[in-house]
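Feature request, filed as a ticket because there's no other form

It would be nice if the structure record came with a short human-readable summary line next to the tokens. Right now we just get the raw output. Example of a typical job, pasted below so the devs can see what we mean:
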Amino acid sequence: MALSGIEIYKLLPKTNCKECGFPTCMAFGLKLAAKQVELSACPYVSDEAKAQLAASSEPPVRLISLKSDGHKVEVGNEVVLFRHEKTFYNKPGFFYLVRDTEDTAAITARVKEIDAYSVNYVGIDLTVDGFAVKADAGDGAAFAKAVEAVRAGTTRPLILIGGSPEVLRSGLEKLAGESVLISAATSDNWEAMTALAKEFKASLVVEAESLEQLSELTPKIKEKGQADLVLNPVGQSFNDSLLKNVVMRKMALAKNFRPFGFPILSTPYQMGDPALEVAMATQAVAKYGGFIVMENFSPETIYALLVLRENIFTDPQKPIQVQAGLYEINDPSPEAPVLVTTNFSITYFSVANEVESSGLPGWLLVADAEGMSVLTAWAAGNFDAERIAKDVKRFDVESKISHKRIILPGHVAVISGELEEELPGWEIKVGPREAVDIPAYLKQAL
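Raw output as currently delivered:
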């Protein structure tokens, strides 16, 4: 039976040394009970305590980190099957595949194009996470050149895919100091692949066509001292992949079955068809894919996948919000109108986009409503006359404009009288209820 945070704390050294990364031993014990850290992070825990804390010493799904120059992708550390139970901690990483049979100049050009992709979604910059290099040529020199060609186009983390340890070695030698994922250890080559992963301090994919084979392989590899593992349960179909992913994650979380306590590698690129590839990637995002390797890149498909990932892996207890402040839209002059909204990202972007698309200049006062939409914030007491007035003064709105007029969202017209009392001398106007009506309102009002 798992120990509580207090029970774990009693077995810790209680030095509050902070070397584990937490301010107190109690904080570390609570994180350990939640299976969000490993016992090895405490340098002073006794051997006796280690034995007693065996069941609480590692998360049910191990954290795997891939690192390169200025980039890091972390997958794992999940403790629930469904987001509504608590939250998901680490988003799956999207990696795009290149093959060592391609021309090196073409590889670099393709990688640069994908690496440069970035789109802003509700204040969040969405990008791909890394690249995978596949050893199709079966030649170490060709593979090394392909790795170099990828590195010429990106500094993002890499996955190296191939069946020959010696071929993979030639690629790893080009990535000194990086944390790489190599694929894959099978029942035929696991000893050599384990030795290679240990030598280069890489994470290792364990691959098998059945869950039984996976459950037999992972303990053998762990016994050899390779703890950073990723599982690839080779799926024959959508249903097969879904079933295996769900079974592995459920066994790891609900049954604490250690052989399945690792992130999952999903390989939609093997579908062959671009449409099926996107569908498989969608399934992987929704159901426990950790590292997702794709091949066919297009801005419209990766955008949809990144937005889906953002929606699923957003903490339901923490709304996405923008920073409160006074925003300029379409280069406003002191005569431009001032509109008010809340700092819930979707609300902000809805209003800002409508004002921008109207072509009319304006000032947008984004009030701190704790990340709630207009009506929700008003009902919760987080978007009232007092708060709006405080933000008018906090962001020195009066010094930016030549008038004293402010436009409230139509949904909260009821507070206009109260705002007049909070802002003496100001003219309080009521705008439309829906953002889509803002352009017509501004054109009429101006």
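Something like this underneath would help us a lot:
The mean pLDDT is 92.
The two ends are 68 Å apart (CA to CA).
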